[in-house]
Design a protein that fits this description.
By secondary structure, this protein is mainly alpha-helical. It has helices spanning 10-27, 41-67, 72-96, 98-115, 120-160, 181-213, 215-236, 241-268, 270-293, 299-332, 341-354, 370-391; strands at residues 361-362, 366-367. The protein has a two-stranded antiparallel ribbon with strand order 1-2. Helix 2 (41-67) packs antiparallel against helix 3. The model is unreliable at 1-6 (pLDDT under 50).
Length: 392
């Protein structure tokens, strides 16, 4: 059953989702969607927040370990340092790959504008992709909203209900006494800036990655429809290159385009994925130990966020893997035996290339898939138990 007609054209709906990402990028001063983008005051302010965060984190660890002899400070600091590291990697990746990202998005928009004029079969896959994109964007929005509100609400609850002052995150600012009214307000303002910028920036980049990744299955489905059309022609005109060769050349070019698209997307987010998965895994281990020790009240909220992002990222890696597997089946299942020998060689080339697909990975060490997420979950549990025994 086809998804319902969404009213607007698929290309217009895609532009709306792109606009959402752009709004969040503007909030962080990183509107790389504009070809004439230049650093502005907000961009430098964001860079300043990130830089001071890492400096103050080092200072916080020094005070906790050397002066207060509280080694749990390291765990508390590492819990939130993961988000800052992820945000830094995404910021660097976005700024350095801006031209490539704009090119990929432009390519997708052209694809929508071209195939929304085709028959209902093409419209079905375009709308299905938009439906998947909508669910993914709202899932990300829910995850980051809950994380941001939860992390900020817990200290507020302690202050208003229990009359206790606790930090939003474990981060000291040199030269400011947080026990004074001015110091307490300054701390909370700075911590709130760190949390909000991390949420806005990570959400914008993650949504951008989703915008690109969900169109890999779409390109595969369009290729399937092209093969279906070729099969229909072959039923009436077998071994007639005048009828079939133009269609086959179009299929060949589209297959090459799909491979190039996957390679460019994978290259663009290679280091982002590695940092995201590694930092989330490390943060979860530290959060679990903090839970055992009872040293960070907001830990459960942040742990749910880390797990959700970990599995969401691996889920989209799985989506690309399944798309690559389907591609081989689509090519092999066509009526290639009705083609001429010369045309069959083109099918053979596509089939051979599909045997070695480009998949998303975690730094080239392991595939980005749900199976990897499961293995990491087991590793997290084991490491957390060992670390908890060591701390105690």
């Amino acid at each position: 059953m086809a998804p319902p007609n969404l009213g607007l054209l698929p290309s217009q709906h895609f532009s709306k989702y792109l606009r959402i990402v752009e709004i969040f990028a503007i909030c962080c001063g990183t509107n790389i969607f504009r070809p004439d983008f230049k650093f502005n005051a907000l961009t430098w302010f964001l860079i300043g927040v990130i830089a001071t965060f890492f400096m103050f984190t080092s200072y916080t660890m020094y005070v906790g370990v050397v002066i207060e002899h509280d080694y749990t400070t390291i765990l508390q600091s590492l819990c939130v340092t993961g988000s800052a590291t992820q945000g830094t990697a995404k910021l660097i990746s976005g700024l350095s790959q801006a031209a490539c990202i704009r090119s990929l998005l432009s390519e997708i928009l052209i694809m929508y504008e071209e195939y929304e004029r085709q028959d209902e079969r093409y419209l079905y896959y375009l709308r299905s992709t938009l439906s998947l994109l909508k669910r993914a964007v709202f899932a990300l929005l829910l995850i980051y909203s809950v994380q941001t509100i939860g992390v900020l609400a817990v200290p507020l609850y302690y202050h208003l209900v229990r009359d206790e002052r606790i930090d939003i995150i474990r981060l000291l600012v040199p030269g400011i006494d947080k026990n004074t009214p001015f110091g307490f307000s300054t701390y909370h303002f700075y911590h709130t800036c760190c949390v909000c910028f991390a949420s806005f920036g990570n959400f914008a980049n993650d949504t951008l990655m989703v915008l690109l990744v969900v169109h890999i299955p779409l390109m595969k489905n369009i290729l399937k429809l092209k093969f279906d059309h070729l099969d229909e022609v072959l039923q009436q005109h077998p071994r007639n290159p005048e009828r079939t060769e133009p269609l086959l050349r179009e299929i060949f070019q589209w297959h090459k385009k799909e491979i190039t698209f996957v390679q460019r997307v994978t290259k663009t987010f290679f280091w982002v994925i590695f940092v995201q998965i590694f930092a989330s895994t490390l943060a979860i281990i530290c959060i679990i130990v903090c839970q055992f020790l009872g040293v960070w009240p907001a830990a459960p909220v942040y742990m749910m966020y880390c797990f959700a992002i970990l599995y969401l990222f691996c889920g989209f890696g799985n989506l690309v893997q399944n798309s690559n597997d389907d591609l081989t089946t689509i090519i092999y299942d066509c009526n290639w035996y009705e083609l001429t020998v010369r045309e069959q060689k083109m099918i053979l080339i596509m089939l051979r290339e599909s045997q070695y697909p480009t998949s998303m990975s975690v730094g080239g060490i392991m595939p980005l898939s749900l199976n990897t997420a499961l293995q990491l979950t087991k590793t997290i549990y084991t490491a957390a138990m060992i670390l908890n025994e060591f701390v105690n």
